[in-house]
User: Fold these one by one.
Assistant:
Number 1:
Amino acid sequence: MNLQRAVLFGLVLTGCAWNFAAGAEPIRLWTGDVPGALGQADHDIPTITPYLPAADKASGTSIVVCPGGGYGGLAGHEGEGYAKWLADNGVSAFVLKYRLGSKGYRHPVMLGDVSRAIRFVRSRAAEWKLDPQRVGVMGSSAGGHLASTVVTHFDAGKADAADVVDRQSSRPDFGVLCYAVISMEDGVTHGGSKTNLLGKNPDPKLVELLSNEKQVTKDTPPCFVWSTQEDKAVPVTNSLRFVAALQQNGIAYDFHVYQKGPHGIGLSEGKNGAAPGEVHPWAKDLLLWMRQNGWLK
């Protein structure tokens, strides 16, 4: 009987470990009414889904992951795909389900969702055994635009807010921008992302505000930026402009342009230059950068 109990206990532990690797249940960012919600459908309720590393791998660093999809959808390989890989490498990942232009939402709703996610993770840092000063943001394509928006449009929170989450800063400690839409300027931006975010014929002042290469300041956090020269959907010019702004403002960054690879390659396991059974070199470059900056062991 004792042996049977021991085996059962081992299976339970194994199951728990598997559940963590696969991601827990989504967590609502607001427990009550969601600001600006157009309804009560699933797409009206922003959430984060935690992917936590095993205790012996956990670094205390966390990343809010913003999947791409042109502000019209959410690409799974740029959400859960990244999150599982991050957890395997000791980073607690939180996949953000943010509200979309295809469902009738426009800026600043999406910025509100990612800002809330960063505050939320900080507010639960003790529970998840995280360092509240090592909370990053990561995004690809339009999700990269959202990530670049929160690294350039953040606030310190409200110390006297009734909601403890709102007392936290929304400033990420670092950003990871993967083939990101950065600019809203015609000829550089991704047209579908711009329309879904700002609507048709947006105010030029709003285009300027959300062209994030123009919003970098001395307070912008360090960033890891990468793209491919072959990307036809989101020109590498987006990344080049953003990195130039980081350089001009003295912000630390790591920048990689890979010659080969179409838009949306993600981790590219065994494809686009990655060896069989391995992820694309950008992922290893990211881990190196994080170790160099003390975010990973």
Number 2:
Amino acid sequence: MTVAIRTPVAEAPSKPDGIADALFHPTGVDGVYARTHLYEDVIERLTSWISSKREPGTEVLRFPPVMSRKDLERHGYLKSFPNLLGCVCALHGTESEIRSAADSHESGGDWTASLSAADLVLSPAACYPVYPIAASRGPVAPGGLVFDVASDCFRHEPSKDLDRFQSFRMREYVCIGTGEEVTAFRDRWLDQAASLAGELGLTFDVKPASDPFFGRTGQVMAVSQLQQALKFEMLIPLHSTEKPTACMSFNYHREHFGETWDIIDQTGAPAHTACVAFGMDRLAVALFWTHGLDVDRWPAAVRDVLKF
């Protein structure tokens, strides 16, 4: 499909003075922040705004920030994004073995050498846990399934930029069904892109995109994703119009998750899936970057939408 949705972009908005200090407190690790009340209030209002867009019949699920390591391996994440993965590790063994490892720290040793992987990983995307749940329910009924999911997520890409966190929040609407049902779902959301950005008073583009697949093989996968128009991003110019920030994505996975999890549609064929993802932290930063730190002076229309 061809999509060309755009609002005029004259220049990126100026970064408000003191934005980092007003919204965050550093924790000593790049891309991981304590968040202020001012910031969290806007996150909560964005959450309610996104909920108001929920289609009838959507099932709501909220996931913890960790998920099954075996499930993520089955998803193929290690093939596509091994450099972004965060694995939960723990001290295993007898009481004396664990005590010895802990005591090594007191004597200047490296206690982390005694760690081994637990059966959990940090969730890299909010939608991943929903597919095995859908698979456990049997064939997808006519009309498909739609889920509203959210999770704290992690991707190992340290950065000092306020629009690239390692620990971030993701909200998604996920559709599972036939190819026709799923592409219609994604197209409905793509058609809303202009109104979504307009309600928030954000200048934007929607353009074809690819995921940051790993290595040389990943470059081929990225080209294929672009050629098939499987992914589009809502891009908001924060740092510059040349390097805008992706704040939403509209993704069609074809049969990938259906085949991976043996999810079948009403015809007995592997189900297709699609998702619309809201980068909660990026959207919040974009609002402050665009409209300033004084929410009382934000445009009246934006304040009304967010119910200030």
